[in-house]
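Next up, a specimen:

>
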Amino acid sequence: MVTKMTATSFETFNDEKWKEVAEKSLRGLPFEKLITKTIEEIDLKPLYTKEQFEKDFRTNDQMLHSVRKGIESPDWTIAQCSYVVDGKTYVSELKESIERGNEAIVYDGSRKLTFKEAELQELANLIQLYPLYAFNVSEEDSFMKLFDQINEADRKNVKGVFTGKAILPEGFHLLRTSYANMIPLHQQGADIITELAVTLSIAAEKAEQYNSFVSFSNQFFVRFAIDTQFFLEIAKLRAFRVLWQTFAEAYGYTKFSKIPILSETSLRTYSKLDPYVNLLRAGNEAFSAVLGGTDVLTVHPHNILTNPTPASVRYARNIQLVIKEETFVQYVLDPSGGSYYIDTLTNQMIDKAWELFKTIEEQGGYSAYVANGELNKKLDQLYKQRMDQISRREKSLIGTNIYADLTTSFEKEEKIVHVERRLAEPYEKLREFFEHSQPKTVLLTFGKLKDFKARADFVLGYLATAGIKTEQSPPFSTVEEARDWMKQHNFDYAVICTPPKETKVIMDEFIQDFPNEKWIDIAGKFDAKQEAEWKKAGVSGFIYQGQNQLEKLTKLQTHWEEVKK
């Protein structure tokens, strides 16, 4: 037996053989069905191999070398925000958060606080021990008095970043003040390629204000929002390291240039609906940023859009602590390096972003790119594309455009932040409307449960995303049964759910005496001629996978508003 086993060999499989097997499993569908095209025009394939990687990119050594040399340390700084409304509470909560794992002092001047002298003195002591990340600080902000509390000899102990219209006093040389902030662009819909290219273009413009590249790079940092596209966001941060090194070499800097990457979890996919899903999104995004090699990370609480609580702030902080305690990834430099999938994405992003960067420079640089409207035009197009994907449910916002939970209400008021072009916002507006004005909605079902259940479940979930609660009729055996039931029961809106193969037979009989006074849709997608015939007979419309959901639900809202007048 052992002799027979040692003599056994296995057939070698290559990419082509794997593809043949995959195509057979698709049962006639094209292999391209397994490929997903991203908004960056990158094809996500079902399989990545060394063979294919070497064919496309020849060598990986230089890219890996640039990524790893650009990272200061595999560890990162936990930089959690505070959402309080006064200086005293800010200092108190800051001290507590540091005791519980926070590693930095974060201050956002857009939510200006008032500090008393005693509080400023406590902060002055803390910022000599922990890095400071201060954003949007104005000259009249009382936070500025903090810097006067620090002796000139001790100012060299203060490190981190500082942004805003306020001017720092002399001596704070380790506070970086020049930056490219991609978070606003990200929230407006920017894709990864645009973020990377615009970052370089801003850097090129700001570098001209310095005497040397070294003095510039010592003051420069970047800010990125990390979205839910896990592997793509890992590749984004890795690609930036390589792009930055190429950028530095263009200025004659031959050593490895390291600048801080500050990341935060993205708010454009956050939703007020089913907000605990935001907690899952934040965990996904945080781990992506860590694997991509971020230097500083902020995780936003799951209910930041409405009213963060001490518990939600603690959950956000603990996401990072759990990653460190459970994965030990802080001891590994470039943990995703060597994955053919992520390395391929990284290389593709490098090429695409560099080409776009050169295009921007050819048009006169960043300021010219903004002034001629090209950037806004691109952001508008990308936002519309994202919303179209969400509306057609090609992309999922769990709890929002799919798997909506109608058993819980949601807070409407935005007390902390307002994010323009947030993807969930149109659904939230629909939910708010139907929460206060609910049509009595029924599903008119035909046949056996097993035959119509798939369609009925789809319609239930589809309407739930707008907050429309749905009841179900008993299953009808005949159209006459359905007519009798409809005469005895009052409703405002109905959707006919039939076994797919029987829809035409049922509807051809139904339209002979269709209740035109009723607002009735049909579940399913049919050819244009058939749909036109049924609509002529009195059918209101159709509900099916792939249609523009927001457009359909908005029409339902408009119709109901007219009915209620």
Notes: The first helix runs from residue 2 to 6. The radius of gyration is 29 Å. The chain has a mean pLDDT of 93.
